[in-house]
Structures are given as structure tokens and as C-alpha cells.
């Protein structure tokens, strides 16, 4: 009987240790995102590109999910790509934060093409006229929740996308 209790306690302590480690990594991630320098941000960008984004694509663009899907065409390859982004509706279009700056491939593709397709909450929009704007121009367009969050994470650049036509409802 004594061995079983020890084994049970050992499993419990391992579980608690794993949970604490996960919380610690999450805290470290958000601190790095907020206070990290260029090398830290680049490491987070690479991790997100290869680990987080593929997981996010399973839910992005759905009706009750915060992330949207940006569909764009490669500027050199001509290949079709899909990227999960946060797209906030504002008057006359959408605003997408650029936490990793303007050097990301999806933004270069959208700027080169001048258009993309955005799936937000289950609705598909053809968007055109991408404009890279600074925070001073974007923050007045935002609700207080998004403004506060993006100020906290020191996001300085955004892209604004305008719908080309009326939204196309998708099933």
C-alpha cells in the first residue's frame, strides 16, 4: 500500500512540475514578446512560423475564433499561401498588427500583389490597397481593448486592408 501512495504522489508531483514549467514558459514567452530585443523577436517569429501558425490554421477564420486567415500569392513563386493573422475590423476595412515588423513574407506578398483574401469570423473578404501605417495613425481607429494590448506589446506598425467589394458569405 505504501508503494502505491508514493507512486501516486510521484505522478502528482510530476504533473504539478509539468504544469508549473508550462506556466513558466508561457510567462517567459509574454515577457520576451514585450521586452525582448530584435534577436528575441526573430526567435519568436521563427517559432510561430513553424510551430504555432500550423496549429492556428486549424481554427483561424472560423466564426468564433479571434484569428483570421490571410490568403495571398507568393511574389516570386506564384504559390498560394495562407497565414493566420489578427484582423480587427475598423471603419472602411481591417487593421492587422505587424509585431515582427515589415520584413515578413506575407506582407511583402500582399504589398507586391496589392490584394489578398481575408477570412474573418467565417466571412470572406477580397481586400485591396494594403497600406502600412504607424501606431499613431491606427490607434484612434481601435477599440480600447486592442489599443491597450498593442500598446503594451509595443507594436508600432500595422497594415490596413480595404474590402474590394461587398463581403462574400461562405458556408
Give your account of this protein's structure.
With 171 residues, this protein is α+β, with helices and mostly antiparallel strands. It has a domain at 59-169: Roll (Pnp Oxidase, Chain A), CATH 2.30.110.10. 44% of the residues lie in helices and 27% in strands. It contains 5 helices and 8 strands. Strands 1, 2, 3, 4, 5, 6, 7 and 8 form an 8-stranded antiparallel β-sheet that branches. The longest helix is centred in the first third of the chain and has 34 residues, at 2-35.
* Element-level helix/strand string: HHEEEEHEEHHEE
CATH architecture of the domain at 59-169: Roll
- Uncertain runs: none
Radius of gyration: 20 Å
Nearest-integer average pLDDT: 85
Identify the CATH class of the domain at 59-169.
Mainly Beta
Sheet with the most strands, sense and barrel status: 8 strands, antiparallel
> How many helices?
5
Tell me, briefly, the overall form. globular
Please estimate the helix content.
40-55%
* Amino-to-carboxy terminus distance: 57 Å
CATH level 4 superfamily of the domain at 59-169: Electron Transport, Fmn-binding Protein, Chain A
- Do you know the CATH topology of the domain at 59-169? Pnp Oxidase, Chain A
Strand content: 25-35%
**Helix- and strand-based class?**
alpha+beta
**Secondary structure tally: strands:** 8
Amino acid at each position: 500500500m505504501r508503494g502505491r501512495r508514493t507512486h501516486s504522489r510521484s505522478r502528482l508531483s510530476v504533473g504539478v512540475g509539468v504544469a508549473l514549467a508550462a506556466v513558466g514558459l508561457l510567462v517567459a514567452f509574454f515577457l520576451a514578446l514585450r521586452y525582448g530585443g530584435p534577436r528575441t523577436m526573430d526567435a519568436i517569429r521563427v517559432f510561430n512560423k513553424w510551430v504555432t501558425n500550423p496549429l492556428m490554421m486549424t481554427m483561424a477564420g472560423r466564426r468564433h475564433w479571434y484569428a483570421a486567415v490571410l490568403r495571398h500569392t507568393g511574389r516570386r513563386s506564384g504559390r498560394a499561401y495562407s497565414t493566420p493573422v489578427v484582423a480587427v475590423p475598423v471603419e472602411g476595412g481591417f487593421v492587422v498588427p505587424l509585431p515582427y515588423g515589415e520584413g515578413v513574407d506575407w506582407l511583402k506578398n500582399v504589398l507586391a500583389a496589392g490584394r489578398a483574401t481575408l477570412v474573418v469570423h467565417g466571412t470572406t473578404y477580397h481586400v485591396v490597397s494594403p497600406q502600412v501605417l504607424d501606431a499613431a495613425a491606427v490607434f484612434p481607429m481601435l477599440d480600447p481593448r486592442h489599443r491597450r494590448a498593442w500598446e503594451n506589446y509595443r507594436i508600432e506598425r500595422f497594415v490596413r486592408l480595404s474590402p474590394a467589394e461587398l463581403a462574400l458569405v461562405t458556408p
